[in-house]
Amino acid sequence: MCELFAMSSRQPATVVFSxxxxxxxGDPSGPRKDGWGIAYVQTRDAxxxxxxxxxxxxxxxxxxxxxxxxxxxxxxxxxxxxxxxVCFENTQPFLRELGGRAHVFAHNGDLVDVxxxxxxPVGRRRPMGDTDSEYAFSALLDAxxxxxxxxxxxxxxGDRLEIVAGFACTLRRLGPANFLxxxxxxxxxxxxxxxxxEGGPFRPPGLHTLARHCAFEPDALRTPxxxxxTSDSRGxxxxxxxxxxxxxEGWQPLDxxxxxxTSSGMIRARQKT
Length: 273
Fold this sequence. Notes:
The protein has helices spanning 59-65, 132-150, 157-172, and strands at residues 3-17, 36-42, 45-51, 70-78, 94-98, 101-108, 178-182, 187-191, 208-214, 222-223, 226-229, 236-242, 252-253, 258-263, 266-272. It is an alpha+beta fold. Strands 1, 2, 3, 4, 9, 10, 11, 12 and 13 form a nine-stranded antiparallel sheet that branches. A six-stranded antiparallel sheet has the order 5-6-7-8-14-15, covered by helices on one side. A hairpin with a 2-residue loop joins strand 14 and strand 15. The radius of gyration is 17 Å and the shape is globular. 44% of the residues are buried.
């Protein structure tokens, strides 16, 4: 399956993906070789870097590793293609606009016949690629569009969560539906099921979280494959989300059907559907 990762922090932080650890999940000799992408949030917009090539041999990953790109929200995806060609438009994360803000989405799973689902219309939106993930994202934005366009500012978090949770419930009827969704204000992480390394049927958990509070220490947020560095002397609040635990620390699995909402490194809401 694909690999998902996200970082939410109170103060801007630098996330470095190590070629020796995290990016090797997209090694050309392994199954996750069909593309990768990283989104760095900048206020209400986002900078997405992605390519339809293995992460483990990417010069762009090396560029990211050697530059101090700072953000309070980072979202990453390493692809193992199940639906759609291996091409740029099918590479995640996807970025679209709604309500004057960038919305970013990445999905892990396999949604069977998602385009035939009457409960997931895309309205005026048209996917650029041919993946189940992008079609699902188009349907989510269609469901949220009226709420965002009718609101003078950012819609109430509870209203947004209700729509996202309902969308997640519909997706789970079609197949594994782990996803990360940033709506220009907060990150919604939905945990579903995942195929275990030893094989067999899909089972929960599909996502894990790790909350950290640290004073200023250069290595305070260093994990195998991912380094989160902060230079803020006031300390830092960080929430990490990953498909599988990246360390031996107390990662918390999301229940099947649970949606967790985070911003500024803190969990703001959660709902199980």
